Amino acid sequence: MEASRHIRSAVTAQIVEKKSRFIAYLTPVSGEEEALSFIQSIKKKHFDARHNCYAYITKENTRSSDDGEPSHTAGRPMLDALSGAGLSDVCVVVTRYFGGVLLGTGGLTRAYKGAVNAALELAETYELVTMAKLGITTGYQEYTRISRLGGENGDIAEGSFGPVAIRNLNYSDKVSFNMYCLPERKEELTRSLTDMTQGQIEITELGYEEL
């Protein structure tokens, strides 16, 4: 089962190393554009800081920046903290206010990663599972049988075909809806639906979606 971990809401944490303040802003993002917008907002907020380093992981890209710190002492350790936590669709900016004492490359690496880890300790996380998405149209009598396989109110139910969800119901002369299952159970479920309805069903593969 392929799953990705996400944070539920933005959090902020701060650590102090040899009088330097490291403020970590950790937030969920929907994509790279939102991550870049968030980074700019923090840079604007802390325009007087010496460094606003960042890292983000999105479906489009994974990037990090040392923002003037020695190479690989900030952005990369921050990115390692995010990936080490198994997170996706997430961005972090660590703002540093220099305290007058040099930390050295090792000290900087530990401080930037430590600031991100402090934020991660405050973050509430959850998992999304990649599911195969099917578009289905069938009769009302057939749907009554099919509905027993899926969760109520769009919930994911655990059944004989593994996790299954039914969503986006539309009632007209027939019933149309989306059905979600694990990718490796898609063919088995499709065959069973066809047998269950004696072929009185239309099934369209609609790719994959995280639930």
Description:
The protein is α+β, with helices and mostly antiparallel strands and 211 residues long. It folds into two domains: 3-123, 2-Layer Sandwich (Ribosomal Protein S5, domain 2); 129-210, Alpha-Beta Plaits (2-Layer Sandwich). The protein is 29% helix and 40% strand. It has five helices and eleven strands. The strands form two sheets. Strands 1, 7, 8, 9, 10 and 11 form a six-stranded antiparallel β-sheet that branches. A five-stranded antiparallel β-sheet has the order 2-3-6-4-5, sandwiched between helices. Helix 2 runs parallel beside helix 3 (104-122). It is elongated and about 75 Å long.
In brief:
The chain is an alpha+beta fold and 211 residues long.
C-alpha-based Rg, rounded: 23 Å
- What's the shape? elongated
Query: What is the name of the CATH topology of the largest domain?
Result: Ribosomal Protein S5, domain 2
Number of strands: 11
The averaged pLDDT comes out at: 96
Structural class: alpha+beta
Order of helices and strands: EEEHEEHEHEHEEEHE
- Bin the strand percentage: 35-45%
Helix content: 25-40%
Oligomer state of the chains in this structure: single chain
Low-confidence stretches: none
- The tally of structural domains comes to 2
CATH superfamily membership of the largest domain, which one? Impact, N-terminal domain
Summarize the helices and strands and which ones pair or pack:
Layout (H helix, E strand, L loop, with lengths): L2 E5 L3 E7 L2 E9 L3 H14 L5 E7 L4 E4 L9 H10 L5 E8 L6 H19 L2 E14 L1 H7 L10 E3 L2 E10 L3 E7 L4 H11 L4 E10 L1
Antiparallel strand pairs: 1-7, 2-3, 3-6, 4-5, 4-6, 7-10, 7-11, 8-9, 9-10
